[in-house]
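Revision sheet: structure tokens.
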Amino acid sequence: MLENIKSALFKIWITLSGVIVFFSTSFIFAYIIKNGFKSVNLEFIFGSPQGIPLGSEGGIFPAIVGSLFLMIIACIFASLLAISTSIYVVYYCKSLKIENIVHVIVQCMAGVPSIVLGLFGYTLLVVNLKLGRSLLSAGLTLGIMIFPFIQVRVEKIFREISSSIINSSYALGISKSYTFFKLILPICKSEIVSAITLAGGFAMGAAAPIILTGAVIFAPIPKSLSSPVMALPFHLYILTGEGISLEKSYATTLVLIGLLFIINIISIALTFIRKGVR
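Predicted:
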């Protein structure tokens, strides 16, 4: 009897949680679409910010391109570090102590507030390495932010590979590097790309790390890595924070959510492809 009551309460709790999350999320999306959709048109998407104050008219195309460039740089930088760290921890590290130290460092990095990472990026990249407030500085800072996100998932992916496959390869005298590139990587590459894509969406929506490292109120489409850059989250922050245009703010939010939605769809599709292969 008691078990039945517990089971019923658990089902009610799960159902209510799902309903609350669904309707809360739907309300937020519906509210943004209702207030932003009327301002989203081709001129807004492919135009540059105009008007006085700047941003009250015109479009957000430089910010869209800037956000995509920042996401690409962040993903490349973070992926190189995260994948190499995961390979070392899973296939080369023989010491449990070192493995635990690596895990603690990654977990601590994941808990650092994004504004602190922005200050770190400003101090290291902009001031000490003299990269200036640029696309490269902002992209690298975002890469540091998403590094733990990718590393944890890639390590989990590697650990899910059947050890019998790997041991069979080693038993044939095949080297670890050949086994990784010819056997392990082809098996899990779609899941790795999925994790990187999801992290890219996380980077694209972050404003705090790029405020001090590369984002500016207005800049044309960056022509080099040393150019300052516009970004959608920073542009949205300026529009709302300075009270420039609430209408443009909702439209910018809608475009940003649309891009993040597309990125998440790509990530989910890659995950399903991987499961289909299995």
